[in-house]
Amino acid sequence: MEQDIPTISAWQCIRRFACRYLRPFTGSFTVVQLMHLAGGLLLLLPPLLIRSVIDDAIDGDNVRLLVLQVSLIAGIFALWALISSIKEYWGHSIAQRLTVRVRNDLYGHFQKLSMSFHDNKKTGELLARIIDDINVVQEVIHHGPETIIIGLAMIGGTAGLMLYLDWRLALVGMAVMPVLAIFSRKIVKRMWREFRNERKQLASLSEEVEENLTGIHIIKAFVREGEESASTALANEKHRRSRMRIIKYVSLLFPGAMLINGAGMAAVLLVGGWRTIQGDMTVGTLTAFVFLLRGFLEPLMRVMMFAEQGGRFVAGVGRFFEYMDIEPEIQDRPGALELETVEGEVRFEDVHFRYDEEIILAGINFTAPPGAMIALVGPSGSGKTTITRLIPRFYEPYMGNVLIDGTDVRDITQHSLRKYIGMVMQDDFLFSGSIAENISYGRPDASGEAVMEAARMANADQFVENMPGGYETQIGKRGVKLSEGQRQRISIARALLKKPRILLLDEATSSVDSETEALIKQAVERLRAGRTTFVIAHRLSTILEADEILFVDSGRITERGTHSELMALDGQYARFYRIQFSEMHAI
Ligand code: ADP
């Protein structure tokens, strides 16, 4: 699944991200960075003042100087607190605004991607990516530059000050730096790698859970709870192992760094203490060194901690761009036609299609005149649904043409094409929300009367009006609070309100009581009246009324004609009909 995505280097990720999302905030972002710098540099001053407190004020018995210098130290901390508080708030607010843009872009992009993309990706994985990646990005946007700027300012400033105070002792103190750097680099590198791995494990875990919860009815019905729990437990365990490897690195990194730094501190105290005894150095300078050395370790540790997040950031941004870089397979051509009106003629010219390798449709030819009803009949898996998916250009044939009123669908904007096409599929998706919102999904601006009229035409008005909240009744996730027959009529009402010219209909096979069945049948008849209709027919009455029946077998139209013509032919259709319908009654 991953191999179809180009991998982007870390540097490219950061540069692209900055150009695309940081640019609008350049001014305020820069000010926040300057505040980071000022905050970092301010913290270098107290050790110098402490030195003077000890050497000048205490040693010189100068109380006035003591009070002055301590006040100065207190003032510096107050100023630092003020700057930190402002930059914290401001920096996070920039990160938040930026994140909203990132999220919207990514979500918008996913919507644009073609059906073939969505066929191959699992919702759990997508969700984990969107939510998780972007949370990390948001954290790093603010804390990343903060850590680096404060870190560099403090490490550079501390080194400079130490060298200024006593260059020999400074060299002793800094001797541990290369050891620390090599040690942390080794561990952090492995940690980065493991972070990528951990996130993959997490994605597959949430995928597993998402699938389980979606299919919970089936799991319970087939008493497979045990097996499903076991497979989730396995994914969970894999994630734990990966997480534990990260924890192992973290447990090594910080104590290890502290140990190395402690060794540096001991060396400074030993050498500095000896030199102070010798009278080569003042107590104040030695104290300043101890404080400065602590100021050395802290930013270094922060930089190392950031490396942890930095790894996740690069991984997150990398994946973000990998997805953003996927071009929708189906795009509007430059200068594509905006359909103004549609008569409703649909023509397939030698259409060949495949989803993956296997050829699903081969040499499909037919013309459906405006207003005609075409029944697609044939064994399951023969390609009937696929034919209907090519009309709204959800997929594209690799050979041949699909034409609406003589215009190739590839020359029409997808938006205007789909505006004229209505769909009622089996088990159609309803959104959580009210009944009115679901009916007006294709025309959100429709008036209340129009919604009610559509419901009436779809024979849905009675049950809706009997509900406690009427049209405002919330139907739950995917419409779980409605019965099968009610859901079907809501989806018919939704299609009716859209007033499409071309209708794609997959007759429901699920059994509803005969009264509801009759209501649905009447609703469908009203829906298809005067529209070019393709119906994947499961009802005998539909087939009998069809202007033309296309018998689809293994991706080819093997027979075509009206019911009586095909029965007279006594071929595949007649055989199929006898098996399927001989014992059924037309409703
Ligand atoms: P029918 O509607 O006649 O039952 P379909 O058009 O749904 O048949 O399916 C035709 C063939 O295409 C089947 O073999 C099916 O497995 C395959 N197929 C359907 N949808 C997809 C898809 N999204 N990706 C890959 N193969 C698919």
In CATH, the topology of the largest domain is named ABC transporter transmembrane region fold
Q: Tell me the name of the CATH class of the largest domain.
A: Mainly Alpha
Biggest pleated sheet: 6 strands, mixed
Bound molecules: adenosine-5'-diphosphate
Q: Determine the mean pLDDT.
A: 87
Helical/strand content category: alpha/beta
- C-alpha termini separation: 47 Å
The total tally of domains equals 3
Cα-based radius of gyration, to the nearest Å: 35 Å
Number of strands: 10
Which range best describes the helical content: under 10%, 10-25%, 25-40%, 40-55%, 55-70% or over 70%?
55-70%
CATH homologous superfamily assignment of the largest domain: ABC transporter type 1, transmembrane domain
**Strand composition percent:** 5-15%
In summary, what is this structure?
With 587 residues, this protein is α/β, with parallel strands linked by helices.
Structural account:
- Helices cover about 65% and strands about 10% of the residues.
- It is elongated.
- Helix 6 (about 125-165) packs antiparallel against helix 7 (about 165-175) and helix 8 (about 175-215) runs antiparallel to helix 10 (about 225-275).
- The strands form two sheets. It has a six-stranded mixed sheet with strand order 6-7-8-3-9-10, with helices on both faces. A four-stranded antiparallel sheet has the order 2-1-4-5, covered by helices on one side.
- The chain folds into three domains: about 10-325, Up-down Bundle (ABC transporter transmembrane region fold), CATH 1.20.1560.10; about 330-345 and about 355-400 and about 410-420 and about 500-585, Rossmann fold, CATH 3.40.50.300; about 430-500, Rossmann fold (3-Layer(aba) Sandwich), CATH 3.40.50.
- It has helices at about 10-20, 25-40, 45-60, 65-110, 115-120, 125-165, 165-175, 175-215, 215-220, 225-275, 285-325, 385-390, 415-420, 435-440, 450-455, 460-465, 485-500, 515-530, 540-545, 565-570, 570-580, and strands at about 345-355, 360-370, 375, 400-405, 405-410, 420-425, 500-505, 530-535, 550-555, 555-560.
- About 35% of the residues are buried.
- It is of the alpha/beta class and about 575 residues long.
- Bound molecules: adenosine-5'-diphosphate.
- Adenosine-5'-diphosphate binds near residues 119 and 385.
